Amino acid sequence: GDCGSTTAPTPTYTDSLIDSIIEWRQLVDKKGMLLPTLLLIPIAVVITYVLTQFVVWLFNPTVSSFFKKMEEKAQQAQNQRSLSTYDPNGDADPTSNMEFFLYLCNRNVVTDQKLQNAILKVDRGAFFLDIENINPYVDEERNINGSVIPSPSEMLRCLDIVCQNLPQNAKVVVFGCGSGYEVALMGRVVGGLEGQLVVCADSIDSARVCATNIAQMDRDLMDSISICMDPNSEKEIANNPYDVAFSLFCVEEVG
């Protein structure tokens, strides 16, 4: 017979598996980062899922309400500290919105309940830039660009008279807006009466500053406030009936 011929053995399943493992090891050796990269894929998927669920949870109305309540409790705690440490009869200037409120009430500057509630909710300090480096709660006149801006108590006395005479569904127009503090107060009061506040700014820039400040503090407040961006809109406004019209005045300095 043909004793010199040989036949190659048929590869078994085990041999094929071993060959595959060897090829895989060689591939891993050549591409050292392949295995770690493959492991990162499921990790990235898990992280993405967790972050997505967290964002959904964060914007859940119930969760938002919880954080709002926590913020209100923190504000109440701060108010209590002010009540226990600040003497509205003393010479010290108010340094917080609560102290400012106590200062006004103690001097009977503000007597209307609607305006008092608005002052508590609208922080005067939020309408002053940090770079101005002034205490926004001090009750004194300010000189800006050669003009005298009335003190907060002077302005709020006027607003107090206005608020005492506002009917339900009041339609109010105000000329001038400043940084938006007084406008925000009136927006709170008028909005509570289911009315509408129309603001005629003296310039487009001041209208934008006012709208931006109010929107950053409380976007929902803008639902009851309309700000005219056109400084020439007084003529159109004058032809509309309003329950109350007043001006956030500015008096030129004399001498």
From TrEMBL:
Q: What are the annotated GO cellular component locations?
A: cytoplasm
GO molecular function annotations of the record? protein-L-isoaspartate (D-aspartate) O-methyltransferase activity
Which keywords appear in this protein's UniProt record, sorted alphabetically? Cytoplasm, Membrane, Methyltransferase, S-adenosyl-L-methionine, Transferase, Transmembrane, Transmembrane helix
**What Gene3D superfamilies does the entry give?**
Vaccinia Virus protein VP39
Membrane spanning residue stretches: 33-59
EC numbers listed for it are 2.1.1.77
Alphabetized InterPro entries for the sequence? PCMT, SAM-dependent_MTases_sf
The record's top EC class is: transferase
Q: Where in the cell is it found?
A: Cytoplasm
- What Pfam families is this protein classified in? PCMT (PF01135)
The alphabetized list of GO BP terms reads: methylation
Q: Which family does it belong to?
A: Belongs to the methyltransferase superfamily. L-isoaspartyl/D-aspartyl protein methyltransferase family.
Give the protein's recorded name.
protein-L-isoaspartate(D-aspartate) O-methyltransferase
